[in-house]
Amino acid sequence: MNRTPQTPFSSARGGPFDRLLDGGRPPRRRRARPPVSFNLGRPPRIPDRRPLLIGGAVVLAALLLFLLFLPPFSLLLGGGGDRPVELEALGQPQDLPAGLTAASPLLRLEAPGDVQGQVRLTVRLDVRAEPGAAYGFYTYAGGEWRLLGPATPTEDGLAVSAAFEGLPENVAVLLQGDAGVKVIGEVPSGASLHPDAVGLLSFYSPRDFTPRADGAVPGGYTAPEDATGLRVVPSVNGGTEEAAAAVDRILSDEALWTQHAQRLAALARDAGFDGIDIRYTRVRPELREPFTGFITTLSRELHREGRMLSVTLPAPVRRPDGTWDTSAYDWEAIGRAAEVVKVLPVEDPAVYREQMPAALAYASALVGAKKLYLVVSPWSVDRTASGAERVSRLEALSRVVHLELKTPEPVRPGTEVQIEAPYLRRPNNVPPLWDAVAASVRYWYQAQDGRHDVWIENEFSTGFKLELVQRLGLGGVAVDDASTGPEGYNIWPVIQTFLEDGQAPLVQPDLAMIGTDCEASTGPEPQCGEGSTITWRAPDQGGQAQISLYVSDGSLRVRGSLTVNVQASAPTPTPSPTPTPRPGQ
Q1: What is the DSSP letter of 1?
Q2: Cβ atoms of 283 and 327 closer than 8 Å
Q3: How far apart are CA 159 and CA 133, in angstroms?
Q4: Rounded CA gap, 171 and 164, in Å?
Q5: The dihedral of CA 361, 366, 368, 372: what is its sign?
Q6: DSSP character for 422?
Q7: Which sign, positive or negative, has the C-alpha torsion 182, 375, 302, 115?
Q8: Rounded to 5 degrees, what are φ and ψ at 335?
Q9: pLDDT digits (tens, 9 = 90+) for 90-108
């Protein structure tokens, strides 16, 4: 389907530079002035001192340009030779969208004739580059700011540089991600966006598309009810067995991955998306180089039309010798190509708090902290030796309160009834507890396929994950399921508190509230200790009784019930007097 891009770069009214940039009217006459030639590493000649009218203030162009374009400002045109380029400073960028701040003036660039090939531009910043910050080259036309591509700081941090196809009419360096933490909402294909997520998201990423072995990208866009203010960046999901095999096939052929990148860019253009998210998380390590080439090519194709690239990657793993295993992913190269890099959590929740801070710090050094988005989830995890399964919070807690009647029926009045909660059977099963090391509520049980460790995701564990975003200064957080699907846990109040307060809500549950208790609807109170057996004595009167077991993870209380049918007592016959025989009878 076609849609108008929900880009934050547009302005409903005429922008402040429209008059200076001609605003679509015939070009205004200029006095002839000598051109200025630049080449890489060569300082510019100062143009004439023709006054510029900017915001009502008249300044001398020569003085302004002298201050702005000290080396290392340079412009290298395709072919490597000098070309005459006219340059004019138009003042500080105005009416910037939320999340962007000016890091340089807006510069007009002109060259006689059509400039073909690659253009490399280096521009001095107003202030030294912030470590880990994300800069981009933007152009302004018709009241709209459009991204040309990411800008890489020079070694001394005084300037940024990037290469483009062709010469833009004007350019400015803008700092990205300066409006605080942003939130990405991912939604399974066809699912509805959670109503509480509306107003909190900056990016909307439905997982609607999958790669095919021939490079095609089948799928259909799932539009939210209200996309106001959202940048729509759909995910192309290569996480299934079939999709992972298709990705391997694509990456094994350069012509095919080049065509795949072009098809993705065409998909974004034809549907009016603001960008594309690549979620190819199962690429084989030997395909590292072609994957990097594919991402670089896709970045160039998207940036050519002012669209963004997001890439989702598994967290790097530190080896015992202290080096890092990044598998098929060149983090530094991907960081140069993408505006957003989403980092998936480590697979084992038991070591999350131990491994994720170091993994994120390592990635930040290569990519830049403001480009990184930590992936969090409203789903709980049931983990075994063979893998992990996502379960809802409600399902995870409901398993604990599953009850089975052990006393044979029919149950007679006064009988001692034995009811068992098999998920609490000791010594191999342990009821819910707060794991202070992992900052999560967990329990484990033994089944035919081995031990299951269940990690319950709730407001407490999510708060401790968000603390990493705050501590490391990351660009934001990505919620891997922003739909209405997961039962028992609404993650959005926690996200809202984090955004409003600027602080992660670090709260441990009341330990006295974690655990189990039981009750009966009639008769004496049942006895439920720390084990799996509930003992209850059937009342004297017959009928149905509900035996309930409750479990809590510190805030959510879930009940499991079992109906016990108590047999009614048979009535005791009332003896009648035996007549005394009379004499003669």
Answers
A1: -
A2: yes
A3: 13
A4: 11
A5: negative
A6: G
A7: positive
A8: -65, -35
A9: 887 887 776 678 888 898 8
